[in-house]
Write a structure and sequence with these properties.
The protein folds into four domains: about 230 residues, Aldolase class I (TIM Barrel, Alpha-Beta Barrel); about 110 residues, no CATH class; about 90 residues, Thrombin, subunit H; about 100 residues, no CATH class. A hairpin with a 4-residue loop joins strand 29 and strand 30. Helices cover about 25% and strands about 30% of the residues. The strands form five sheets. Strands 1-2-3-4-5-6-7-11 form an eight-stranded parallel β-barrel, surrounded by six helices. It has about 625 residues and is α/β, with parallel strands linked by helices. The two termini are about 45 Å apart. The chain is globular. The chain has 13 helices and 30 strands.
Amino acid sequence: MTPRPLELLAPAKNADFGIEAILHGADAVYIGGQAFGARASAGNGVADIHRLASVAHRYDARVFAAVNTILTDAELEPARRLIWQLYEAGVDAVIVQDMGLLELDLPPVQLHASTQTDIRTPEKARFLDRVGFSQLVLARELSLPQIRRIADVTTSTLEFFIHGALCVAYSGQCYISHAHTGRSANRGECSQACRLPYNLADGEGRIIAMHQHLLSMKDNDQSANLLQLAEAGVGAFKIEGRLKDLSYVKNITAHYRVLLDEILTAHPDRFCRASSGHCRYTFTPQPEKTFNRGGTDYFVNGRQADIGAFATPAFVGVALGHIRSLGANWFELEAGDAKLHNGDGLAYLNAAGEAGGMRVNTVERQGNTALWRCVPQEMPADLQPDMPLYRNHDQAFERLLEKTSAERRILLDLVFAETRQGFSLTLTDETGIRAEADFIQKEKTPTRDPERAAVALREHLGKLGATRYQARDIHLVPASPSFLPVSAINALRREAVANLDTARAAAYRRPPRKTPAADAMTYPESALSYLGNVHNQKARDFYHRHGVAVIDAAFEAGNETGEVALMTTRHCLRYSFNLCPKEVKGLRPDPLTLVSGKEKFTLVFDCKQCEMRVLGRKKRHIPIQAEPTP
């Protein structure tokens, strides 16, 4: 059986972040173009994306461009032109949500189905596979058995989020933001209503929970499940975070690179690398030190009780210890074995359960004890003795990540040979690509000390520090070749490396566009409500062509009236508060309602599907405007 590549896919807020993700071990990065991306504030020009692709391809890594919003009729042509520009800039794939794009004249670039296409079933996955998608971003809510069932009926690479923020709703199925603000999540402008505090009340008006962030999930962390995910059929392991800072990208990418490399080393007959080059870091990856709301593996191993970040959507950090005493502008912290630094950020939860924080100007250890006297920039008024403190900004760790923190090297085998005409150097990289260089010198001079000369020759041949290569093996033919000046050795090495760079660039091939199946593929549903996100005529044409008879307009068209499902989620507040009828027989607390200020939502539960729907009404607001033409 041919080993299957495992791809680590990292986010790129911009080209510089993407380059750092590559250097820290990503096999691919995803980045937004200048418009039509599901993160409207993370757009990038075509020239920057070309620069990123040029660096990525040196390591056989790939660049995916996100063009994954739903589009109006007026936006289809600008989106088509943008995709052509991205293709000409060197991107390897385009991530899309809107099926109207498949009806247009697109370049021969791979298409990836965005997470907003809401892939939860084998039937939908198989459909998207057969209409031309090469990679499918699966719903975050799937379990291992569900992923296996999808893998059994598809040939596309299955992509799965393994780290970062979790949308509480199925992606593409959340309309709260647009209903209340006119900012559509499906058009890259989510207002993140899920991170707000809510009250939860039962059918008799009794408060079950007050001022808690009841729709806010902990962050995804699949560190312990990577092998099981690979065995289930996942081939691309995706890190969320196109809006995250650079230290997050470096730290989290390096963390998963280390874990995936361990799997590749342990199972070389089953899995292989998706790009070339091996990474070394100046730091030890520690995902707990960068932004997170606590960790959960969500539904991968079935429903879990503790998946919500109800107390706060903020980053509280790693537990440090407790406050021992307080002064006017200082406090003493008992921190165990932890070491504090000037400039650290500390956080706490006050008596109301709300998060607070501070930066400390100076810290001073009290003798040889675990006590530290901390002087913050501003003394919080609600600090209390015995209050637990957490560190959410480790100044020393962040300083490491501000510097050059990784290098990525492609392994080389070098063969230095003496020939009739002089000398030759052959380089073969870890992927099998070869390049040669020759030095003409017919008159040879034997070395005075063959053993010492061979050691020196190997040393000079292996000086690859200014390149992206690293010597794995250096072979001399014969073992003690004739004398060659150091300047000539260096020139030969530089020429061979330049030739290898050229050979690698010529050998790189972007993945081909998948040809749709010859037979007409029927969509799994015969009717689409607003949940189908159809917002233009080309998308309607696509679904009609594939057997859908009834197609309602997208929610963003403004046709929906009355109380409708603004969110569909596997997160269940009945379950979270021990009100599940499956768990407690005869219990009927309905209707449950969520209240935030003047906003009130009715919760409806589908126990057969184990889903919760958040029902609400659409406010009047200014209609959406088309994206500007790129």
